[in-house]
Amino acid sequence: MPKIWVYRKGDDNPHACTALRLAKAGDVELVRSVNAIPRGSLLLDPFSQYALSPADAPFVGWHGLALIDCSWEHAELVFKHVKNRARRALPFLIAGNPVKQDQPVNLSTAEALAAALYILGWKDKALEILNRFKWGGHFFTINQDLLDKYASCLSSKEVVEVQLSELKRRRDARNPPSVLDGI
Fold first, then answer.
1. Are the beta carbons of 119 and 54 closer than 8 angstroms?
2. What's the average model confidence in pLDDT over 41-54?
3. In whole angstroms, what is the distance from residue 52 CA to residue 88 CA?
4. What stretches of the chain show up as alpha helix (H) in DSSP?
5. Of 31, 77, 46, 51, nearest in space to 160 by CA
6. How many CA atoms lie within 13 A of 4 on its CB side?
7. Which of 112, 115, 149, 165 lies most in the core, judged by the most C-beta atoms within 10 Å?
8. Mapping DSSP to helix (H, G, I), strand (E, B) and coil, where does residue 80 land?
9. pTM score, whole prediction
């Protein structure tokens, strides 16, 4: 199990903060500033150009994983201040938490951590983490197929291909072809 650090900006409701609950349970170590995140760790960054993949597991196992807990409204600005870190973005997933339930991409810190651990091969720990939340099972129910596909990829490139295929499938399901398309 890798070492996990979380910088909590504190711009959200502390009663709904999943990072605080994870820290209380001993799953993560909270750090006081983005500069306190160990430089060698892999940072989950939604703005990274590279997707997290199982190929990152040895690096994370050795150097650890870092997350930033902040409001999505401020995320871009907060992540710009973090320098000199290896970064990976999570691929497309749907939130299961009650605040952003069934919305794409806007995961809670606990969901992001669980998804990352699942993709990296620490599935039991991922399930354990989300079992701490009443809605944790919903996250896995709606994302199980995707998480399994991502976890079976060999590279970031393959994860992106799976993601693009899923997004195309969802777009096609929303816009089925018309009978008139062939005319």
1. yes
2. 93
3. 5
4. 18-24, 57-63, 75-80, 109-120, 123-130, 136-151, 156-174
5. 51
6. 26
7. 115
8. helix
9. 0.89
* Identity of the residue numbered 178: S
CA 109/CA 115 separation, integer angstroms? 10
Place of tokens 């693009």: 164
- Tell how far CA 1 is from the center of its chain: 17
User: What is the token pair recorded at 71?
Assistant: 């409001």
CA dihedral 166, 68, 88, 114 (to 10 degrees): -50
Length, in residues, of the chain? 183
Tokens of 157: 């490139």
Percent of the chain topping pLDDT 70: 93
Q: How far apart are CA 100 and CA 82, in angstroms?
A: 25
Confidence of residue 181 (pLDDT cuts 50, 70, 90): low
Q: How far apart are the first and last CA of the chain?
A: 58
Confidence band, pLDDT 50/70/90 cuts, at residue 82: confident
CB atoms within 10 A of CB 148: 12
Residue with tokens 């992106």: 160
